[in-house]
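For the sake of transparency, this paper describes our internal protein records without simplification. Because each token names a local backbone shape, the row as a whole describes the fold. One such record is reproduced below, unchanged from the form in which we store it:
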Amino acid sequence: MKSLILTHKDMTRENLLQAAEAIPGAWEGIRITAYLLLLSGWKSTEVAKLFEVTRWAVVKWIKKANEGGIQAVEDNPRTGRPSQFDNALKKELEEALTKSPKEFGIPRVRWDGKVFVEYIWRFYKKKITIRHAQRLIRELGFSLRQPIYRYVQATEEGVEEFRSVLKKTSPAQKKQRRKGDPV
């Protein structure tokens, strides 16, 4: 398969370096660097590996640059409502999730969507849905699954000693228990 190359006349090393100085932002800088690497002969798969993005993302960057020139460096405005949780608030929420809800005056043992909605309303006066709270909990790296308690599997070590110490019940005693009073 033939490797993709940059063909637009505006995509030069000088133009890219000027754009890097003029445009603040990490992704723009990454794209500028990726374009510079592509211009110096790197393949799209190598660039994708370097920046830990998918190869398809790099291919889209190349197509965008070939169509629009140096304007491909800038991010397009994103549609949709901006998040009401900035990074500082997310850090606070993450710290709260490491503690018990009881520490915040919520009479529950563990966090779930409903408890998290109540916490956010009480302390930040932000109203969100339970589903949004569940997504936010997962986004912050926590799980909504209830903890499962598992018993450690027994080994053969100590079994013989346990059996020798174990009090044996004779068949006569078993009959007496069934017929007689409870012990």
